[in-house]
Design a protein that fits this description.
Strand content: 15-25%
Number of helices: 14
Oligomer: single chain
Shape: globular
Strand order of the largest sheet: 2-8-7-6-5-3-4
Number of strands: 13
Radius of gyration: 20 Å
């Protein structure tokens, strides 16, 4: 079997694993106060061109989303996102479990459009009964989106402007951030992201690490007692070095960006294979996630030798399927898929 199922079904990138092994016998401070975590934080701040930023290392995406959202919102506030947003569809009610309603709004290709957000806020603020509902306190987007699409710099600026005018935090889920930053046609950089949102995180789990997400606050806006919030959410590792060593490796010699670029190159080759086979795409994605419409008969034949995700029914005779590349995808995997198709 060859796998295009997801981008987190491998272990760690060899350079990350090597750093873990090389440092394994050292005794370090605990709870993220070790020198490797401190080094990683400084490297991340340098990459963001944000020397005054605060960085926190957590272990998983859902855990990170739940902790950041709960930390930044008041108890009665809600978070607004595209109806396809990860926190709305694939996190088992984790956000609601912390007491915050998720408000899903109409989307286009996985993106929350500024006009949609503006209309929602206008209706909310003119509602005479607004004190009886959950109060919007944050806008959540992901980069890339759940559908592999990207926000442009202009789209992000428009969302930022609306958030500022209506007193909302802007939080960016970066579980696949590397693959978005290195995608063809992307005009957003890490420093740009740091400058134009209130918080975001750099995903490691899906980009070369065994586990780990780096949360970045860049406007002197770290929630009060955020370290304690991490602990309260069961997200504080006693052996904080586990994530620290990995991000120290990922942000040495541009490893994070190099391996992300590789995944994008493999996705472009994958896209060519699918197009050559005459298959249609459900959405055009420049990132490592490709959504293709497969006739059900072909899908059932192909899945005997290839792992991929059945995303959603398209019609009675075909299914939208997701094929994903990663830092670990090999050219031989693409060639094998071409032969099978």
């Amino acid at each position: 079997m060859i796998s295009f199922e997801c981008d987190y079904n491998n272990g760690a990138h060899p350079e990350v694993l090597r750093h873990l092994v090389e440092t394994n016998d050292e005794e370090t401070l605990t709870y993220g106060f070790d020198r490797y975590t401190e080094q990683a934080k400084e490297k991340i701040k340098a990459a963001c061109e944000a020397p005054d930023a605060e960085v926190f290392l957590l272990t998983g995406g859902t855990q990170t989303n739940a902790t950041v959202i709960d930390g930044m919102l008041r108890s009665y506030e809600a978070v607004v996102c595209a109806e396809t947003g990860h926190i709305n569809v694939h996190e088992a009610g984790a956000i609601e479990a912390s007491g915050h309603k998720v408000i899903g709004l109409p989307q286009k290709d996985g993106k929350l459009e500024a006009a949609t957000l503006e209309r929602f806020m206008e209706v909310f603020e003119n509602d005479e009964s607004r004190d009886h509902v959950a109060q919007p306190g944050m806008v959540y987007i992901s980069f890339p989106t759940e559908m592999g699409s990207l926000y442009t710099a202009d789209e992000l600026l428009r969302l930022e402007d609306i958030c500022h005018r209506h007193g909302l935090h802007l939080f960016v889920d970066g579980a696949r951030l590397g693959y978005g930053l290195m995608a063809e046609g992307n005009d957003i950089t890490l420093p740009f992201l740091a400058a134009h949102c209130d918080a975001f995180y750099i995903g490691g789990t899906k980009v070369g690490a065994l586990c780990g997400e780096a949360v970045v606050f860049t406007h002197n806006n770290t929630p009060r007692c955020f370290f304690s919030m991490i602990k309260r959410h069961g997200a504080l590792l006693a052996k904080g070095r586990l994530t620290g060593v990995q991000f120290d490796a990922l942000f040495t010699d541009d490893l994070y960006f190099r391996i992300s670029r590789h995944a994008i190159e493999m996705a472009a080759a994958l896209r060519d294979v699918l197009r050559e086979a005459g298959l249609a795409f459900y959405v055009e994605s420049p990132t490592n996630q490709q959504f293709v419409i497969l006739p059900n008969k072909k899908m059932h034949l192909l899945e005997q030798q290839v792992l991929f995700t059945h995303w959603m029914p398209y019609d009675d005779d075909s299914t939208v399927c997701r094929f994903v590349t990663s830092w670990a995808t090999k050219p031989e995997d693409i060639q094998r898929l071409r032969q099978l198709i």
